[in-house]
Amino acid sequence: MSYARVLCVGLVGMAGHLVEVEADLSPGLPAVVLTGLPDTALHEARDRVRAAVVNSGRSWPNRRITVNLLPAALPKHGSAFDLAIAAALLTGAGELPSRPLEGVVVLGELGLDGAVRPVRGVLPMVAAAVGAGIDQVIVPLANAREATVVPGVTVRAVDSLHRLVDFVHAKGELLDPPPPAPAVPAPGPDMADIVGQELGRYGLEVAAAGGHHLALFGPPGAGKTMLAERLPSILPELDDAAALEVTSLQSIAGELPPHGGLVRRPPFQAPHHTASTAALVGGGSGLARPGALSLAHRGVLFLDEAAEIRSSTLQALRQPLETGRVVLGRANGTTRYPARVQLVMAANPCPCASPAGDQHCTCTPLVRRRYLARLSGPLLDRIDIRLTLPPLTAAQLLTVTTPATPSAVVAERVVKARAAAAARWTEGGWRVNAEVPGSQLRQKPWRLPTADTAELKKALDMGLLSARGFDRVLRLAWTIADLDGLGRPARDEVMEALQLRTGDRHG
Ligand SMILES: [Zn+2]
Which residues belong to any copy of the MCM C-terminal AAA(+) ATPase domain (predicted)? Predict the structure, then answer.
């Protein structure tokens, strides 16, 4: 036999496609030809596969070898095809029987010594294989646990080409995936660590309950970062579908720890304010990788020093925040990643960043206005809650005696409030108040009595509030009512919401 075929999977964004790796060996000048739109990494595969085969003690077939990856039109990248290429080549050369790998998807990068190394994106690849009717996969040992997350497939692992060859010859066994990771992950930072800062804690709770974007203004040391980092700790666990998406994205980005399983906690991403647009939104040369925005999908994107971020970068966030997904144009096609995030922005009130806050600020009012105006164009209007945090003084730190409420307690209130909102919006399919369209809130049966929204209308008429802002206050009012266990917001909740929205709530 001089022809063989082994199955593999190629990824475009989150979507996997079954790829057939064909090997044909014919008499002629010894050479290896790769066809089927391979990128640079795939050309390197040729050299890796040869070294791995030889260093695994197999002889390299001295014939003309053609390796073809089908479908040809599918852009392919990365090193996950190595193992399938080696298997197809050895089978075509008559070194291996073909039957044991029939209908099996084989994934893995080869080291020059013949070791099988982990690859990115194994979870979405295995999910795609199962979707295409495959029920057996062979994956690198370090990726085995993420592969077992996909139901309906038998996962076996390899650590070397040698082991795969022995298995196909029925001389040895493949490896079993490692047992599932402990169900309880290490606890992250907790709300109990935050001293004082009542306003910040309250804003965080409302943000978590309604899925609202949040902006924190205040001098350095006011605890903006501490608060933001603790938002995931009061968000509910990810449901099955969300957990699969989040784990797939981390797998593609190579951020899933070796032997990592399903990610159940909402992610937290805090890119530096000097990060490039590609790092934030996604991209990179050739293959479009997910950026911080997609890695924060179903979790929290924290932009610290937001006023220092380049305006073109802030501008690039605008569309994805609105649509919940990133679309990256590439020469060989378009790549899409989900990006439904809860945004937390933090900024100093002015460029001098006096730690004592307003008292010692040396900036003119014009400079202060210009500084924050950098945010207002692209993003600030999309943010429901704006808080101005006071500087924390030593006296405050010393007088606080009661311990702060821990995250677990706050998270319970958040879950209750979210359940009330989800029950109310079942018809529209919205899960949190932040997703509800404004038109829905302004019409029956959800329209609030005129007496309760009078102040809101006044703010709109006076130009203190945009039309979009008007709707955002309504959403916030519903969240506050949900947290308080009320059936619907009344005047008090609307006023509270207006203050959270306009930043008039000072701590
Ligand atoms: Zn200043």
Answer: 291-349
How far away, in angstroms, is 475 Cα from ligand 1 center? 33
**Residue-wise pLDDT tens digits, 116-135:** 999 999 999 999 999 999 99
- Measured CA distances, 226 to 160, 231, 430 (Å): 45, 9, 30
DSSP of 72-132, one letter per residue? Answer: TTS---SSTTHHHHHHHHHHHTTSS-SGGGTT-EE--EEPTTSBEE--TTHHHHHHHHHHT
Instruction: Determine the distance separating the centroid of ligand 1 and the alpha carbon of 376, expressed in angstroms.
Output: 18
CA 350–ligand 1 middle distance (angstroms)? 4
* Alpha-carbon distances, residue 307 vs 219, 370, 376 (angstroms): 13, 10, 10
Cα-to-centroid distance, 274 and ligand 1 (Å)? 21
The DSSP bridge pattern shows strands 64-70 and 31-35 to be: parallel
Confidence of residue 182 (pLDDT cuts 50, 70, 90): low
CB atoms within 10 A of CB 265: 18
Rounded to two decimals, what is the model's pTM? 0.88
